[in-house]
Design brief:
- The protein is α/β, with parallel strands linked by helices.
- It folds into three domains: about 150 residues, Rossmann fold; about 170 residues, Argininosuccinate synthetase, chain A, domain 2, CATH 3.90.1260.10; about 30 residues, no CATH class.
- It has a five-stranded parallel β-sheet, with helices on both faces.
- Helix 7 packs across helix 8.
- The N and C termini lie far apart (about 75 Å).
Length: about 400
């Protein structure tokens, strides 16, 4: 039986219950760990006090914002990762870092177990535990949702009320949220009906497009070797860039998606996500790549995006195949340097300009005006050679009476 447990603690509904439950169930010392990933809010300032008051023997609160953006979000953006063509993986990418730090604390404190508050139906349990086992194969993992008798968030709320544990979820707004510097997610509760439109009070990192300014905002994002490094000509740290871009894009109603996604465990789930800065950076990065990457490299890389996104979504951040794909993605980024100009207007993020010292775009080749570089008659032989197999196939079908 576990003697000392390091818990991934957020101060939310589930993990607030988990501290007390772990103490009662295992008679163990519980060390709470909360990662500051840019979620902000009053709860971060009081999370240590709340964890100790709920029963934790120690509470770590670590500012991981720079590491999160630099070593997790930026590599994912360099790969243009987007799960099922829509989700920018804001929750998925946070879990490996949290779990990694849990293992670090477990080693420091001599803990023999780690725990998380993810449900037995979701993806997060997989993401946490894949990371635990990848970094410390002999660690004991405790997943309360797979053990306790609570069967719903309402039963958790009732338990919290009974034991006077303050939690952010209520019977009126029982949906689950997860926020960091990349996004905020909403799941459960009133969102479980995929026909129901999200309510206006759910906007957090952005305003609704209807309330966005009536005039467009133009911005320029500077890139160096695939990473965004500046905004409107001013170089910024990774965290500063994200914070400013979140404010600008969010203020223009940009970043919301409402999807039904396929969880790794086989369940379809409806989620609403706000990813203001991430939405802009995804569009900007692809625009810059369009003038700096060779066609075949571009197409081959795009064929790998779905697999890469799946690996992040499923929790394989520390798996050898993700690391291999990352190396391939990063190899082609050395020339992705330049500036992208975007027009932000009432929920729309439009690329209106791109330039690079490494641009492969040649106006004298692309022009429809008179030029001397490209002989249009050469296209005839090119077409006939590439159409040869089509002609042969058609002739043979005719010969065989097909």
């Amino acid at each position: 039986m576990a003697r000392k447990i390091v818990l991934a603690y957020s101060g939310g509904l589930d993990t607030s219950i988990v501290i007390k439950w772990l103490i009662e169930k295992y008679n163990a010392e519980v060390i709470a760990f909360c990662a500051d990933l840019g979620q902000g809010g009053e709860e971060l300032g009081t999370v240590r006090e709340k964890a100790l008051k709920t029963g934790a023997s120690k509470a770590y609160v670590e500012d991981l914002r720079t590491e999160f953006v630099r070593d997790y979000i930026f590599p994912m953006l360099r790969a243009n990762a987007m799960y099922e063509g829509t989700y920018l993986l804001g929750t998925s990418i946070a879990r490996p870092l949290i779990a990694k730090k849990q293992i670090d604390i477990a080693l420091k404190e001599g803990a023999d177990a780690v725990a998380h508050g993810a449900t037995g139906k979701g993806n997060d349990q997989v993401r946490f535990e894949f990371t635990y086992y990848a970094l410390k194969p002999d660690i004991t993992v405790i997943s309360p949702w797979r053990e306790w008798s609570f069967d719903s968030r309402q039963s958790l709320i009732a338990y919290a009320e009974k034991h006077a544990i303050p939690v952010p979820a209520t019977r009126e707004k029982p949906y689950s949220t997860d926020r960091n510097i990349l996004h905020i997610s909403y799941e459960g509760g009133i969102l479980e009906d995929p026909w129901a439109e999200p309510t206006q009070d759910m906007y957090t990192m952005m305003v609704s497009p209807e309330k966005a300014p009536d005039r467009p905002t133009y911005i320029e994002v500077d890139y160096r070797e695939g990473n965004p490094v500046g905004l409107d000509g001013k170089e910024l740290s990774p965290v500063e860039l994200f914070e400013r871009l979140n404010a600008i894009a969010g203020g223009n109603g940009i970043g919301r998606v409402d999807i039904v996604e396929n969880r790794y465990v086989g369940i379809k789930s409806r989620g609403v996500y706000e990813t203001p800065a991430g939405t802009v950076l995804h569009a900007a990065h692809r625009a810059l790549e369009s003038i700096t990457l060779d066609r075949e490299v571009f197409h081959l890389r795009d064929s790998l995006i779905q697999k890469y996104a799946e690996l992040v979504y499923y929790g394989y951040w520390f798996a050898p195949e993700r690391i291999m794909l990352q190396a391939a993605m990063d190899t082609i980024q050395k020339d992705v340097t330049g500036t992208v100009r975007l027009k932000l207007y009432k929920g729309n993020c439009l690329v209106v300009g791109r330039k690079s010292p490494n641009s492969l775009y040649q106006p004298d080749l692309a022009t429809f005006e008179a030029e001397k570089v490209y002989n249009q008659k050469d296209a005839e032989g090119f077409i006939k050679l590439n159409a040869l197999r089509l002609r042969v196939n058609s002739m043979l079908r005719g010969t065989r009476g097909r």
